[in-house]
Amino acid sequence: MYIFSPPAGSTRRTRTALAALVLILALTGCASAPPPNDSMNQAQNQLQMARDAGAADYAPVDLGFAQDKFQLAQAAMAERKYADAANLAEESRADAELAQAKARLGAARAQIQSKVQENTRLRQQGEQAAAAAQAPPPAPPSSAAPAGEMPAPASSVLSAPPPANGFQTVPDTVQQPAANTQGGQP
């Protein structure tokens, strides 16, 4: 007799256990992972948020990686390779999130640069205004008459007769009495 020989009734139990194991493995192989719809939706939403944040302008490489991985995830879904699709969707979501963060950073930097330029322009205007306030007033142009004198009227105005209505200067016709040295009346 052998030391390791199976007992007489155990072959039937072994065959039953082996058949049950094969059946469990077969059922487990048929029941693969469920489709990663949530992961795909999250990746797609994150891609859209990255596009809305301006990732095409500020982080085009990262956005491209995210889009490529999402397309690969869609292809894996079509082939019913759900585990691969879930992994690719998660990578796509992470790349899209990175692209969105870089886009926000780029937009913030552009806004800061715009404000710095505006501040520089305003500072220069303020310095020019301060310099103008401290400078003496500019001299009048040389063609203008001195401030105390009036320019002469044109010759056509001098030769024209005065208008009939309005203010006119009348010569003084009343004669002043001569000084009387005799003390009499005039």
From TrEMBL:
Compositionally biased tracts (Polar residues): 166-186
Keyword field contains Signal: yes
Keyword Signal attributed: yes
Pfam annotation, one family: DUF4398
Domain of life per record: Bacteria
Organism of origin: Rhodanobacter thiooxydans
Signal peptide (residue range): 1-33
Lineage: Bacteria, Pseudomonadati, Pseudomonadota, Gammaproteobacteria, Lysobacterales
Gene3D superfamilies assigned to the protein according to its UniProt record, in alphabetical order: 1.20.1270.390
UniProtKB keywords: Signal
Protein name: DUF4398 domain-containing protein
Biased composition (Low complexity): 125-134, 144-159
InterPro entries: DUF4398
Domain DUF4398 as annotated: residue spans: 39-113
Region of interest: Disordered: 119-186
